[in-house]
Design brief:
- This protein is mainly alpha-helical.
- Strands 1-2-3 form a 3-stranded antiparallel beta sheet.
């Protein structure tokens, strides 16, 4: 059990001959000291936590008692004391950290997962939740952020390989999710690492997903006349995403199309990017016909008559797109994401500047092009770019 008390250290005499009064923090057989602003002229003026033989002794004792009461309250409010070393406990007391400050891996993970679910990013939240479960099981319980070292990460890799027979690519994904939590903790100033824990594991760059389709293949999809509803829905959704600058499915399904313009903030980056994150586009005529076909006029949202959850509907759309592509003898790999990839690829091939394409899809402008950080890409630029890309389908 942790204890605190007022002490002086006779051997730690200041240059002027006085001794500073300190708060001794004893925990797990170790003692650390928090200095106060109060001093005595010699060790004889302090005994058993009390100031003696001074004219102001009574006043000093009242102030010191109040200070110690404050620290005792902080100590009382810190839960799970066994998780902290004496040094960490001293820092918690000195900094006045709130008892609910998430200083453990599980606490930071849970907080972030909750935010993701509020933003309806359930798929990513589930991945982080799974990693948190595996990492906590590996550590045999929750672990302090400050206790995570390269050695622990190295053994976590071995644990995943041995217990779950994961290949290198899958392990990279789990270490990447672990790094996401550690980076979030660092940004919140909850922990500082002299050596990054995940630096010992080199994560291989993910292979580029070749999901873009050619202009000719997109035209073939546009001109198709499927005979089943699921293929019609798949056709209309991939076209609508392409026509609206590669918008993600979650943003498309949540948008109120009673608005005259297409303006939104990407769900994926809503709570991660700074500055103006709003994308503003004019809805092209090609998109209007599809929107009118599926829009619920009471809510303004697209309504396909299904009761699927978002995750199930996303899988349903991708399976339907594969069936549609097969029926049209399209050999390229295809998914809903192909609209976004193809929009950028086709625009790049037409000579549209990358910074305008990035604005259209809501992507961060790259830091290696600093001059573009000062450009404000307006809706007119995006509208002209989209028009150029769609006119290319006609020509």
């Amino acid at each position: 059990m942790a204890t605190i008390k007022l002490v002086i250290l006779p051997h730690a005499t200041l240059k002027d001959g006085t001794n500073k009064i300190r708060i001794a923090v004893n925990h797990q057989g170790v003692t650390r000291y928090i200095p106060t602003h109060y001093k005595v002229d010699s060790p004889s003026q302090f005994r058993d936590g009390q100031v003696l033989n001074r004219p102001d002794a009574h006043t000093m004792n009242i102030k010191l008692r109040n200070l110690l009461n404050d620290y005792e309250e902080r100590l009382y409010n810190i839960s799970s004391l066994h998780l902290y070393s004496c040094t960490q406990l001293k820092e918690l007391l000195r900094n006045g950290s709130k008892p609910d400050t998430p200083l453990t891996f599980q606490a930071v993970s849970s907080e972030y997962i909750s935010e993701l679910r509020q933003d309806k990013r359930d798929n990513y939240a589930t991945l982080l939740e799974r990693n948190c479960r595996y990492f906590t099981a590996f550590c045999k319980g929750d672990i302090l952020l400050a206790s995570i070292t390269p050695y622990i990460i190295q053994n976590y890799v071995r644990y995943l390989k041995k217990n779950y027979r994961m290949n290198d690519t899958t392990i990279d994904m789990f270490i990447s999710r672990t790094r996401t939590i550690l980076n979030r903790a660092k940004k919140q100033n909850l922990v500082h690492y002299e050596i990054e824990p995940t630096s010992i594991h080199k994560i291989q760059a993910a292979p580029e997903r070749e999901l873009d389709i050619t202009v000719q293949e997109l035209i073939k999809i546009r001109d198709s006349s499927p005979d089943s509803k699921r293929l019609i829905v798949a056709r209309d959704l991939i076209l609508l995403s392409y026509y609206l600058g590669g918008v993600n499915l979650i943003d498309l399904l949540s948008y109120d199309f009673r608005n005259t313009r297409f303006e939104y903030i990407r769900t994926k980056s809503r709570n991660t990017k700074k500055g103006d994150k709003r994308i503003s586009l004019t809805i092209p005529p090609e998109a209007e016909a599809i929107i009118e076909r599926w829009m619920n006029h009471n809510t303004g949202k697209l309504d396909f008559g299904y009761k699927f959850s978002y995750s199930n509907f996303s899988r349903y759309v991708n399976r339907s797109l594969k069936s549609l592509a097969k029926s049209l003898h399209i050999k390229s790999k295809i998914s809903y994401y192909s609209a976004r990839k193809s929009f950028v690829q086709h625009g790049f091939e037409l000579g549209i500047p990358l910074e305008i394409l990035e604005y259209c899809i809501g992507q961060s402008m790259k830091k290696n092009r600093p001059i573009f950080n000062y450009l404000r890409i307006m809706r007119d630029h995006a509208d002209k770019a989209i028009r150029t890309i769609l006119d290319n389908l006609i020509s």
